[in-house]
Write a structure and sequence with these properties.
The protein has 393 residues and is α/β, with parallel strands linked by helices. α4 crosses α5 and α7 packs antiparallel against α11. The protein starts with a helix and ends with a helix. The strands form two sheets. Strands 1, 2, 3, 4, 5, 6, 7, 10 and 11 form a nine-stranded mixed beta sheet that branches. It has a two-stranded antiparallel ribbon with strand order 8-9. The chain contains 15 helices and eleven strands.
Length: 393
């Protein structure tokens, strides 16, 4: 169990560092996404999308910025998809001058933000209860197959547009590459794809996230059950001192950075309570098992059900199918970082030649995994560049 000791030590060390800085009390830490948007005086709309397998997903919209309310012409649509453990709140977690969603809206774009099944505000189903194992029987395969098509089609139908721009962070990049490489009809609806902290393979993942590789599916389910995985609660099974979400203590911050990478020069310590609320939300135990498989196998592949017969039942073949990124023809702009624990530079280096239509790639040596979205310098290094690329296409 050396991995367990290493994880505890890593979080303990980061916690000691952050106790020098952490002191926060932001009202947005107690708000949902719509409330944050209206708190900053932006227009807010919220919709519910039903997937083909019955999940009901909240979809947040900022139809325009503060200074472009008089424009009645159809606007260019941008869709933002968060990563693992996150919610749509990460896109509005900073002040408006450094939150991507607000920056895009103020530049004249129609901004939509999705919430993945199982996250804080996406726990509805037409007939399944969250108390049931059946509700939580999903991994990122279902997000690729059901969630993304349902969401994108809803946006197109609502706006009357033929194509949209897609921005994904972390798992939001993974489900994009999975969906746009396997569903060409869906891919044709994407004008350009922006990948922040791109994740396809996770063979070289570092930090506490690598602990997943030391579990078998059975042992992981014995420890964490077969339903929801809440990082702020379930990591406390490893150590009761890791994280108290009610106080957002130093252990919570340490847990976040032990997962994503440590780049203190880019962390706005005055906003960490908001980051924890919207960046350490829940997901399914099964999706963590899927990532465990991905770390061990080093490939971008569907969920392995554990036997040829079960794989045949779920995949119509005895082994899980691979997601072939080379089959994605959507134009791609990408940002990566050398201090990123989850989108490790080695995995990114293996990904780059597989993207057949890579038009832009910026690597930022000092960036960790969350800095592309919430970092102090994200406006100039990421957000403004996304706006410029959209305006130039």
């Amino acid at each position: 169990m050396w991995w367990l000791l290493r994880t505890i030590c890593l979080i303990h060390v980061f916690g000691k560092i952050f106790c020098l800085f952490i002191k926060t009390d932001n009202p947005e830490a107690h708000m949902n996404v719509s409330e944050i948007i209206t708190f900053w005086n932006y227009p807010s709309e919220e919709y519910k999308v039903k997937t083909d397998d019955g999940y009901i997903l909240p979809l947040n919209r900022i139809p325009h910025g503060i200074n472009n309310t008089d424009s009645s012409a159809p606007k260019t649509v941008v869709y933002l998809q968060h990563g693992l453990f996150s919610t749509a709140g990460v896109w509005v977690a900073n002040h408006p001058n450094n939150s991507l969603a607000f920056i895009l809206a103020d530049s004249g774009l129609d901004v939509w933000m999705g919430n993945s099944r199982g996250s804080t505000w996406a726990k509805e189903h037409v007939n399944l209860s969250t108390d049931s194992k059946e509700f939580w029987a999903f991994s990122y395969d279902e997000m690729i197959k059901y969630d993304l098509p349902a969401t994108i089609n809803f946006i197109l139908n609502k706006t009357g547009q033929k194509q949209i721009y897609y921005v994904g962070h972390s798992q939001g990049t993974l489900i994009a590459m999975g969906a746009f490489s396997t569903n060409q009809q869906l891919a044709e609806k994407i004008k350009m794809c922006f990948l922040l902290g791109p994740v396809a393979t996770v063979k070289y993942v570092k930090g506490s996230g690598r602990s997943l590789a030391y579990f078998t599916p059975t042992s992981f389910k014995l420890l964490f059950g077969e339903k929801e995985f809440l990082p702020t609660a379930d990591f406390s099974k490893v150590s009761p001192y890791i994280c108290d979400i009610k106080e957002v203590n130093t252990g919570c911050v340490a847990l976040l950075t032990s997962l994503t990478g440590y780049a203190p020069e880019h962390l706005n310590t005055s906003r960490v309570d908001v980051y924890i609320k919207h960046g350490l939300a829940g997901t399914s135990v099964q999706i963590l098992v899927h990532y465990s498989q991905a770390i061990k196998k080093g490939v971008f592949q569907a969920y392995d059900w554990g036997s040829p017969s079960l794989n045949m039942l779920h995949h119509n073949q005895t082994t899980p199918p691979l997601y072939i990124v080379e089959n994605m023809k959507v134009p791609v702009a990408m940002w990566s970082g050398d201090k990123d624990f989850l989108a490790n530079p080695k995995d990114v280096a293996n990904l780059v030649p597989k993207i057949s239509n890579l038009t832009f790639h910026m690597n930022i040596p000092s960036y960790s995994h969350i800095d592309f979205v919430t970092g102090l310098h994200a406006k100039s290094s990421v957000s403004d560049k996304i706006v410029n690329i959209i305006k130039s296409v």
